[in-house]
Amino acid sequence: xxxxxxxxxxxxxxxxxxxxxxxxxxxxxxxxxxxxxxxxxxxxxxxxxxxxxxxxxxxxxxxxxxxxxxxxxxxxxxxxxxxxxxxxxxxxxxxxxxxxxxxxxxxxxxxxxxxxxxxxxxxxxxxxxxxxxxxxxxxxxxxxxxxxxxxxxxxxxxxxxxxxxxxxxxxxxxxxxxxxxxxxxxxxxxxxxxxxxxxxxxxxxxxxxxxxxxxxxxxxxxxxxxxxxxxxxxxxxxxxxxxxxxxxxxxxxxxxxxxxxxxxxxxxxxxxxxxxxxxxxxxxxxxxxxxxxxxxxxxxxxxxxxxxxxxxxxxxxxxxxxxxxxxxxxxxxxxxxxxxxxxxxxxxxxxxxxxxxxxxxxxxxxxxxxxxxxxxxxxxxxxxxxxxxxxxxxxxxxxxxxxxxxxxxxxxxxxxxxxxxxxxxxxxxxxxxxxxxxxxxxxxxxxxxxxxxxxxxxxxxxxxxxxxxxxxxxxxxxxx
Length: 480
Prior knowledge:
Blueprint: E1 2-9, E2 16-24, E3 27-32, E4 43-53, E5 55-61, H1 68-81, E6 84-91, H2 104-115, E7 122-127, H3 132-136, H4 138-145, E8 149-153, H5 168-172, H6 182-198, E9 207-211, H7 215-228, H8 233-240, H9 243-260, E10 264-267, H10 273-285, E11 290-296, H11 297-301, H12 321-332, E12 338-340, E13 343-344, H13 348-351, H14 373-383, H15 388-402, E14 419-422, E15 427-429, E16 448-450, E17 453-458, E18 461-465, E19 468-469
Parallel strand pairs: 1-4, 5-6, 5-13, 6-7, 8-9, 9-10, 10-11, 11-12
Antiparallel strand pairs: 1-2, 2-3, 4-14, 14-17, 15-16, 17-18, 18-19
Helix pairs in contact: 6-9, 7-8, 9-10
């Protein structure tokens, strides 16, 4: 294929370059001025639109509330609609997901079997060592499955997805003699550190991600907010999982990372001033640790007074407008490494309680949004002075580099021919029913965005075009 009349946006560049793109065998083979067509070559007219590198959505969840075989299809369609070409999904043993436990040698093979042939975009998984035996499997997963990224959910000690859990063993499906606590986190870090030592050629890509909230603080504040009864909705949920809970968890995790010499740490979905300040303090305290800091597009666009109400319940919570502005301040200052969706499809009929539909404590946590990652960040970012090249870094190049996707993240010869082509001057109103996701609503419902994705290419295959998914699933598993 030859793509003509296109403006290329590259990370770490300055503006765009108007060049032609030749694609051969799924890779960019030539990027030059005025390329002449070859006999039999398909010509694609870029209509003078902007072409971003295909997005690497570094934080998605597939198969939490719906079956994995369903989500793999519909939610990867939604990702393709948003220009996403690489979907990195967090998954674990325990309740939700496959509702199974046991070693990853069996669990992960089942995940891969279900996933095969269903994703419309390339895909991979981050894994959480929930049981002690999973720590011993870290090197096996790296060697045999190309899984180089792992996760700790710091609040799972006595919390589930939506609130307090009276029995962590039942929720996590852990053996009765094992405890999911700070000591377990330390041992996970030691397991990752051993892998870093064993695979020096992968030392830049083996990493540990952390959901930073402290269960003890959340327990006390949830009880206090509920007993006082003065706050409702998202504001109550934010107060029940307060920002200093995030900050404290970041301090604990960072100290443990230093203690164990686990040098590649990803601090996920920072939501507040206190969380960002804690992250920056820990970077100064432990400069030898490669910290990466993540925010979601939802935490950049929504505050707890937003119109979408309980549909925007998520962990960590949507915060105040002051916190939103602080996230932007640090993103524009270069202190945020990537922006993701934290996509987790929760259908409208499951999201809120049927009888108590305004009760935030009964609502489910999480929502989709991968389809609006690029347009949402572009719409709000450009007016704040965010450059198009920085957008390409935040949504593609930086997560590709961190997570070992060596042929993703740029529009350059030899890279996978992944593209997200947008019409940057066109406006559209977000509506959840416009997405192929089965969710049925969007937390950005009614927002006016710029830059809808018009065409998405995956390794040279047109998988989304002018509002329609194209063809059958062509996503490959990404062995990292």
